[in-house]
Amino acid sequence: MSASHRSPVRAALFGLGFTALGAGLTLASGAVAGPGGHGGPPGGHLMRVFEDLDLRPEQQKLVTAFKDDAREAMQDHHAERRADAQEWVKLVREDKLTRALMHQRIDQKIATMKDDMHEMADQVFDLYASLDQVQRAALVEKVEGHLTRMDSEGPGHRGPR
Questions:
Q1: Closest by alpha carbon to 143, among 131, 59, 38, 39?
Q2: How far lies 8's CA from each of 11, 86, 121, in Å?
Q3: CA torsion, points 148, 151, 152, 155, in degrees to nearest 10?
Q4: Which of 61, 103, 115, 119 has its CA 20 to 30 A from that of 69?
């Protein structure tokens, strides 16, 4: 490897690009899919709350569609992350990485993530809109119980629920 490929400036830019991209993807993937628990499925906690509401078959289909779409979105994001990493390597090797390009790529990712998050939110709202009053009351009770557990367990608690 030539000395220019080991330049500290290049290494710093490369690291910064990956850090910014990784942070954005991490935040967005969590927001899009919701927490899945420790290695659980995308949207796992959110959908478990809904599944515990004694759903009618048509409501269960909405949950299944949400899970399938969330899983597909996460697989797509994983593939995109790999392609992005390969592109960053190429740009650094060719000495074509610029601040403007990094900002452009980040803006593109944010726009895509925003669209994905809106689609997921629409699916969740469709499911919520289908709930009857008994199911909505049970949903509120479950969320309040979760908040109470979060308050009592403190930040960062990872124990059993």
A1: 131
A2: 5, 20, 43
A3: 140
A4: 103
Cβ-based neighbours of 73, under 8 Å, separated by 6 or more: 32, 33, 42, 116, 120
> How far is CA 26 from its chain centroid?
6
Query: Could you report the per-residue pLDDT of 54-100, keeping only the tens digit for each?
Result: 899 999 999 888 888 888 888 888 888 888 889 889 988 999 989 99
pLDDT over threshold 70, residue 44: no
Q: Which of 26-40, 107-121, 147-161 has the lowest mean pLDDT?
A: 26-40
Phi/psi class of residue 138: alpha, beta or left (left: φ > 0; alpha: ψ in -120 to 50)? alpha
Structure pTM? 0.59
Helix axes 133-153, 44-51, angle to 10 degrees: 130
